[in-house]
Amino acid sequence: MVNIPLSKPEISEEDITAVNQVLRSGQLAFGSVQRRFEEQFAQFCDVDHALAVSSGTAALHLAVELSGIKEGDEVIVSPFSFIASSNVVLYQNAKPVFVDIEEETFGIDPALIPAAISEKTKAILPTHVFGHPCKIEEISSLCKQNSLSLIEDNCESLGSSIVSNNGVKKAGQFGDYVAYGFYPNKLMTTGEGGMLVLKDAAQLERATALRNQGRGTMKGLHLIHEILGYNYRLSDIQSALGLSQLSRLTDTIVKRDRIVSKYNELFNDVSGVQIPKSLDSYNPAWFVYCIRVSEKRRDPLIKFLADAGIQTRPYFYPPIHLQPFYRQRFGTQPENFPVAEKVSKEIIALPFFNQLTEDQIEQVVAAVREGLKRL
Ligand SMILES: *Cc1c(COP(=O)(O)O)cnc(C)c1O
Fold it and tell me: Are the CB atoms for 101 and 108 separated by under 8 Å?
């Protein structure tokens, strides 16, 4: 029996050396490594300002707070995302308004957004899922037309881009605020960690204060808390790992692209399996490798693969509006968002990480083929 995990971080000797250097330096937090990590990350993303924070959720929360969202406001979010992208709206006592997704990118369907915009709408918070950008150009236009803030949840699609008449633009270059996360299953990791990207230089100071208990950064005074803030800081130990991982992110994306091609090639003649789509004008940076099978076969196939030593997972199941907490609080029901619900019942994420070998890919595909034959 094989033993192939769903995901595995890649930690190199260089990563370990970089972390050890910080440990030996005695400067474990608020040092120059964090600042370098922020600068280089901003450079990689082609943006002006990046602020290292303790998680992707912290980045999303700061984005929502910085866009001035408060009690009574509404924010348009995707039901087909990680729960954090909707929870952060609740942290501000505002209301997440779900809009269904489209099947090409699994992102919010721009055509359905106008009907969801009300007097109370303040922002749209779309998620780029699985490594493939959502239809962000159309969403960005809608934000401009309606004077709404745009907050991109780009925790899963760091490094992906979109080709249009205006040239190539990265996911994460559209939003007023963009959130990134560095949990160990992401394209790059800091253990736990995240990054907030923002457009407005004037807000950088406020964001920096919010990250550190509301401490002012101006007067060089310590322990002067000017606003209500949080502890959303990232250490230099984590930043060192991030900086080292970032330095080979371009290679990582290429590596993962090769794995996707190999999977796709082998699944070519397996009937009953839909491989991940990549639209013509998009360059994904794959975060997970998800196939679709019929709803009826999905869970039995997951079980069959688990028995064969292959770890897989449904993704995102159930969608956010059907999570117990949301059903209880908002009374949401199945069939409110048919596309998200359908997709979430058909998707299986297969083992996908940098070190996955061709042999292992072949074993996974053979097991899926065998499983589908028996079910
Ligand atoms: C990973 C992820 C986050 C952030 O997660 P943290 O665990 O808080 O770092 C947010 N949104 C999406 C879509 C994610 O995949």
Answer: yes
* CA gap 206, 186 in Å, rounded: 28
Question: Does position 34 have pLDDT exceeding 90, yes or no?
Answer: yes
Residue nearest to atom 9 of ligand 1 (CA): 56
Q: How many CB atoms lie within 10 A of CB 148?
A: 21
340 CB-near residues (< 8 Å, 6+ apart) = 78, 79, 80, 100, 101, 319, 321
Ligand 1 atom nearest to 60, measured from its CA = 10
Q: Which tokens belong to 139?
A: 């969403």
77 within ligand 1 shell (Cβ under 6 A) = no
E strand or H helix that includes residue 373: helix 358-374
**Which of 315, 281, 297, 301 has its CA nearest to residue 364?**
301
Q: Which atom of ligand 1 is nearest to the CA of 182?
A: 9
pLDDT digits (tens, 9 = 90+) for 347-356: 999 999 999 9
Q: How confident is the model at residue 218 (pLDDT cuts 50, 70, 90)?
A: low
Tell me the CA distances in angstroms from 22 to 124, 212, 235, 267, one per residue in order. Answer: 39, 21, 10, 45
Indicate whether residue 78 lines ligand 1 (CB < 6 A): no
Which of 313, 287, 298 shows the shortest CA–CA distance to 371? Answer: 298
| Cα separation of the two ends of the chain | 20
Does the predicted model carry a pTM greater than 0.70? Answer: yes
At 165, is the pLDDT very low, low, confident or very high (cuts 50, 70, 90)? confident
The answer to whether the bond into 318 is cis (omega within 30° of 0) is yes
Q: From the CB of 127, is ligand 1 less than 6 Å away?
A: yes
